[in-house]
Amino acid sequence: MPRQLMPDRIRLHPTHPQPRSLQQAAERIARGELILLPTDAGYAFAWGLDARDAEDRVMRIRRLDSKHPFTLLCRAISEIGSLAKLDDRAFRLIKSLVPGPYTFILPAAAELPRRLKQSKRRTIGCRIPDHPLVRGLLDLVGAPLLSTSLVLPGEDFDNHDAEAVAESALRHVDLMLDAEDAPPGPTSVVDLSGDEPAVTRQGFQPLALD
pLDDT digits over 45-57, tens only? Predict the structure, then answer.
């Protein structure tokens, strides 16, 4: 898909994003475009499950290798359950924390979407963000989005500050959804792939599993 000469920046209300603008964003994701969006843990890159070109761009931008795990932004626990193996313990823990700034590492389901199956990963990272824009966009897309944190090698900027994000990262994407500043991030990471749940990264909202 040809790159646009000038990326777009759509401004949306942070708590009541305009439906028409969200629909435009959903249509552009369907076309395979790479976007920036605010989450409940900073701004992030996001793209559709089948958008291989967008994913390749993210890997070049962030200088990632093929083993780097991306996170799936999901609408509900039922959607996570279609992508990962959820036992009762994992289900209860996730239910107690979502929506929120938490990423869950889970055993991958046997049947995955084709693009995810190609990665041959045994675990998968999922989260259900607590941000009106993301939740509205996911409803319109009707499927999870792949995402990764907005980190640019060699650049130091606040990835929760909308103006700093636009100045540093807008040139790398097709579209930025600007809903003002986002919570700072990062997410807490909860590993549910082993015998016992474990917090492997404390986010900006510290988490205890006791």
Answer: 999 999 999 999 9
First CA to last CA across the chain, in angstroms?
49
Task: Indicate whether 48 belongs to any domain.
Answer: yes
Quickly state the pLDDT bin for 6 (edges 50, 70, 90). low
Whether residue 206 lies inside any domain: the answer is no
Q: CB-based contacts of 121: which residues, under 8 Å, 6+ apart?
A: 69, 108
Pairing between strand 42-48 and 145-149? antiparallel
**CB-based contact 160:19 (threshold 8 Å):** no
Query: Does 2 fall in a domain?
Result: no
List b or e across 186-205, with b for residues whose CB sees 16 or more CB atoms inside 10 angstroms: bbbbbbbbeeeeeeeeebeb
Structural domain span for residue 15: 8-201
CA geometry: angle at 81 spanning 185 and 43, to 5°? 20
Residue 3 placed within a domain: no
- What the block records as the tokens of 13 is 């209300």
Q: Structural domain tally of the chain?
A: 1
What percent of the chain is helix, strand and coil (3-state, nearest 5)? 30, 25, 45
Q: For position 103, which CATH number holds?
A: 3.90.870.10
Could you tell me the CA-to-CA distances from 209 to 71, 90, 119, 189, 202 in Å, in that order? Answer: 21, 12, 30, 12, 12
Question: Cα–chain-centroid distance for residue 12?
Answer: 18
Predicted local confidence at residue 30, as pLDDT: 97
